[in-house]
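Appendix B, record 7
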Amino acid sequence: MDDGKVIATGTTPEILQKTGETDLEAAFIALLPEAKRAHHQKVVARPRSSNDDAVPAIEAIGLTRQFGNFTAVDHVSFRIGRGEIFGFLGSNGCGKSTTMKMLTGLLPATSGTAKLFGTPMGSNDMEARRNVGYMSQAFSLYNELTVRQNLELHAQLYHLPADKVDARIKELLSPSLEDAFISYLAEAAGIKVGDKVPPPAQDQASPPATEPQHRTNRFDPGRLWAYARRETMELLRDPIRLTFALLGPLILMIAFGYGISLDVEHLRFTPDPQIRSLFQ
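Structure tokens (predicted):
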């Protein structure tokens, strides 16, 4: 389909035979109208140099990890060359995360060796761990900190010199993921994107741009509504939090109502009966 219109029907072998291509992506391009197909440029991956595989970036040799009688990773071996993209595919519990923890030095291996650029990676080798970047599936950033505070924290964890922290953070806050993606595509296609494109000339009839209004520190009902809507959505998505939010105050009110009493009864001034008789 293209723009909501069916451009070809049939099984995969039939479409490949019709277009004379070897894969569906190339067959789809061949079936496009001439106007769209004329602007297509095939992305050609750069060939890897012969030196890329001289010393692999990551190498696992008989990597094994046991937790008591349970074997999580059983003699895993592989080589990842420089510039190579390597993926782990498998169901939950098959040992992907455990292997990654051993490769990054977060978990010691029961047996086997994990090497980083030819150097064995150990759980107590802090120098080697500083050269590893690891982005976990969850808890990669601390929600209680801002983006800049997270960057400052990681700069301290990796012992970045204090005089280079601000410059490095400024550099990171300015190579977004979109810019990185475009630069890689342009590099693969041989397009130079370093030159800035001049902005288009404005029409004389167009009204002048207005200056942005500065925000004040006064109460903003719109912001209050945004926070209230966000908290409501989080409560609706989490049944446990919603249950505690509704039943928690009710349980506390009942417990305090029946468990705490401010009435004073049967208070004795002295335990001596002779002294107590004087006040009767």
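Remarks on this record: Residues 142-194 form one domain. Strands lie at 58-67, 70-80, 111-116, 119-120.
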